[in-house]
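FAQ: What does the model actually see?

It sees only this:
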Amino acid sequence: MNAAVMTDPIAMPKSALGARGWAAVMSAALAIAVLVPVLNLAVPETSVFHLGDFYVSLLGKILCYAICALAIDLIWGYTGILSLGHGLFFALGGYGMGMYLMRQIGTDGQYKSNMPDFMVFLNWKEFPWHWALSDSFIGQMLLVILVPGLLAFVFGYFAFRSRIKGVYFSIITQALTYAAMLLFFRNETGFGGNNGFTDFKRILGVPLDQQMKVLLCVLSGLVLVGFYVMSRAIINSKAGRVLQAIRDAETRVMFSGYNPVTYKLAIWTLSAVMCAVAGALYVPQVGIINPGEMSAAASIEMAIWAAVGGRGTLIGPILGAFFVNGAKSWFTVAFPEFWLFFLGALFIAVTLFLPQGLLGLWHKLRGHPSASEEGHR
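And it is asked to produce this:
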């Protein structure tokens, strides 16, 4: 039986980045690196071409979300692992950056202390042990990668070795995220409790003004482009073909002499680190991080972005993140009480009528056959 017939997710043709692909990637990187700063900082506010501060902030947020959608696609679209807990890794990366930003406040806080205001309020006399590297940018950035990566590795090791898969794996990941959220809500853990971290002043000694936020937006875009190129290289490699074979028929992969646990664990850990990096970029742009980022809804939305855009395509989930969050930005202003109903209806509609997502619809309109159709030829 052809593997394309067996698979549920869409699998667009997996060609390497050719000349046109590289041209598109470079154009996207150039547009982010040049157009955003010029349109926001150089073009006068009275001009129709001026990109307002609000839209720079919104673009930066969506670029971070797009990284998460890309990470979800690697494990769900290409490996068949549906995670409903990647909000945890996103939040851990955000908290790692937030700890450093809180130390950067210095004595500019309400209590004029070198310790964060919430610690002074709780009458803490010294920093807890896990804040040991919080005054070092390099140290905290290493923790942004190592802590979520190690947690994902340990969790994945036991889960995959136990052959937990399908809906059971999804439920366990959501339970893990919920448990972490309850832990971070507690004041004694040293993460700001319900309020989390906020009121950031500077990063690397530079004020978090509009110029810095434009720079962070550009950096988020370049990181997204870099992760996309890396993901494309993985998917087009031998390891990528093994991952897709695991998605389609894991038992056959085992009988072929491959160890699925190794491949699943590697891509699972990588996707967690990608979400953590996105969280670290997200926090200084929005100015806050709290346990709400670990809510079940946050992780489910990541899966929705991938499904709406078209999972198993890499570019589709990125488009899905932009479409859903762009619509969310408009709906929450125009019809705030109906946003959740719209999101649910969108997910149901895509599942029932557009199983290949928006990208699959685009290919169908252009007359390109889907992977399942090609499998019957």
